[in-house]
Every structure is written in structure tokens, then in C-alpha cells.
Amino acid sequence: MDRREFLKYCGKISLLFTGSLLFAEDIARAFVKIAEGAVNILWLQGQACSGDSVSLLYGDSPEVPELITSIINLRFHPVVSVAQGELVMRIINQELKNKDYILCFEGAVPYKMLGACKIGEFYLTEILKKAISSSIAVVAVGTCSSYGGIPAANKETGAISVVEFMKREGLNKPYVRLPGCPTNSIRVTGTVAYIVAFEKLPALDTDNRPILYYPDVIHNNCQRFQYFSQDRYITDYNQKRGCLFKMGCRGPITKADCPLRRYNRNTSWCVDANGPCIGCANPKFPWPAETGIYTDPNRIK
Known about the structure:
Blueprint: H1 3-18, H2 24-35, E1 40-45, H3 51-57, H4 64-71, E2 73-76, H5 85-98, E3 101-106, E4 109-110, E5 118-119, E6 122-123, H6 124-134, E7 137-141, H7 143-147, H8 149-153, E8 159-160, H9 162-168, E9 175-178, H10 185-198, H11 218-221, H12 225-229, H13 263-266
Parallel strand pairs: 1-2, 1-3, 3-7, 7-9
Antiparallel strand pairs: 4-8, 5-6
Helix pairs in contact: 1-2, 2-10
């Protein structure tokens, strides 16, 4: 694309991320710096379903082919990259030596059953410890990476978040949590662009989540909030108009921007599909077995 198209594109992303054109130049500067190889991206994966990677593939701000060929220097991604075997290990080892990359980590870390995840002939924990130590910053992509998520609900592998792994191993690196199961691709691309543009982490809340993407509980921005205010509740999924609170919606206790920045190229999100929010971005997800995902909200604590 020419310069005009590029700046117009950055303006579009600025509007999408912030609701304003004020950050268009900052975003442009970030993309140029990444394209010039100023900062590489290394993506590693632990116990995961690859849902966060799939969410990234369905993003359009920017679309993945353009993202990885024109905007960022993605050194390795376990789902997107075609590299295999010894080539993968050479790429990873080279990045560990260069120490000039942002580490994006997806999934949980098997801290008890080390053999549950391996990269080449090495346990994931061996590579991950080195990868964190050599990185500029760590981006915990998704709920599993941020809090342990579904893998941590089963204690067999001793699954923990990458943040908890850092604490246990005494690794002091700047980090950002981007919870969601899966997380929205906009949160990933926007966070990385910000780190590159400003050479620091974005404004974070007390749980190290970007305030831009986790500004408030979902409930307060939900398009069905009016029904809640009117005490109009859905008690049967055949009903289409009403608040889903009594169907077990976790929106009132989960911070995320889902109603503001929807999934799959801004197509939809859970409540749009007449399903209650399951609180997938909440630190307690997937919730205690005795309550389950959908439950009487009076039992939610």
C-alpha cells in the first residue's frame, strides 16, 4: 500500500481501538518499527486448544496475512508458521540469543507433569524460562495463560498461568494479561502495537490488564442493560427480549470489552447470540464444578 493508504489504515485501527483518530500516527510509527525489525514477536504455546490463535486468524484489524507479511516480524507461531523440527529450534534459539522480542504466550504451563508439553526434545518449562528471561515483555494471551483457565481446573498436570510461572521461577519481566476464552484478536494486536510505539506497557489495571480492553464489567456496557433496569428477564431461551441475568450471566462480575469490540470481525458476541456471558475473562473461569458455567446468579460469589 502507498503512504496515504497506510495512514488511512492506521486511522481505521485507531478508531477501532480507541474511538478516536488521535493515535493514528502512533500506530503508524509502531507498525513501521516492527516492519523494520526493531521488535520481533515470538509466540509459544502450552496447554491450549489454540482458540486464541484461531481468534487471531479471524481478526481483520489487521487481517493475519497482512499482519505477518507486512506489519510484524513474527519469528515463530506454532499454528501459523510452516517451520518444523530442527528449523523451529534454530529460530527459537536465535531469538533467545538476540533478546529483542516480545513473547506472546498462549495456554497454561504444566508445572507438575512436565512431559505434557515439549518443544523439540525439551520440556516447555525449560524453553519458557529462557524465553521469558530474554524477552522485552510478556503478553499472556487468553485466560489459560493469564489465570490457568480450563487446564488448571484439572489438577493432574499442575497447570498454572504463565504469570504464576514467572512468580514461581523468580522471573521479573513486564507483563500484560489479555484474558478471554478465546481473547479478542484486537486486544493482542493493539497491545503489541502500543508496546512497540511507546516502548512501555499500556495503562493497566491492578491485575495487569489493559484498561482500554477491560474498562468495566461487561454488564454495564451490555446492549441489554435496559432490560435489567426494567426488571425484564429471560427465563427461557425461546425468549429473545430481556436480560440474561437469571440464566446465569456472568457479565455483572466479569471485566471485558466484548459488547464494545465484538468477535469474528466485529460480527457478534455471546449475548448477541442470546447466550449469557459465561465469564470467560474472569480469573475464576471455568468456575467451580459445583456451580458450573450456568447457574443461579444468587450463588455467584
